[in-house]
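User: Some background: our group keeps a shared notebook of sequences we're curious about, and every so often someone picks one and asks for a predicted structure to add to the entry. Today it's my turn. The entry only has the sequence so far, pasted here. Could you supply the structure so I can complete it?
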Amino acid sequence: MFGTGQFAQAAEKLDKHFPLSLQLNLSEDCYSCTLKKTLISLNLNKMAYEFNDGNFKSEVLDSQKVIMVDLWAEWCGPCKAMGPIVDDLAKDFDGKAVIGKLNVDDNPETPTNYNVRGIPTFLIFKGGELVDKVVGTATKQALKDKIDALLA
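Assistant: Of course. Here's the predicted structure to add to the notebook entry:
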């Protein structure tokens, strides 16, 4: 069973992907059991890494890995549309590359450092160096191809 905080956190994650899921008319105990089974079956526990201005240098610039950072904001419709794609890529590349997100409203320093003027923007790094930048929405396959090319 989930604790109260875990229930709210898991419900929030699930609601981002399945907004109608919280419309179920179930008690919290029954819902938390259903929610836990759903999270396990959908592997929603493995989501994109959360970058921020504080960890960006150590987690991205000081890393030798291939890393894709999705710069996004809660109010941005195209960013929200890309969210499930970014989470899918995080699962697909688990152990091979790091796929993460950085909220530009909460972390203004990083987007400024990379001259980001529109979101969503995807910054792709290898060995701590920026090697590619995608501005706007993109297909999962297009982003996957860019990452695969850097892993080859």
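Suggested note for the entry: The longest helix spans residues 77-92. Residues 18-28 have pLDDT under 50 and may be disordered.
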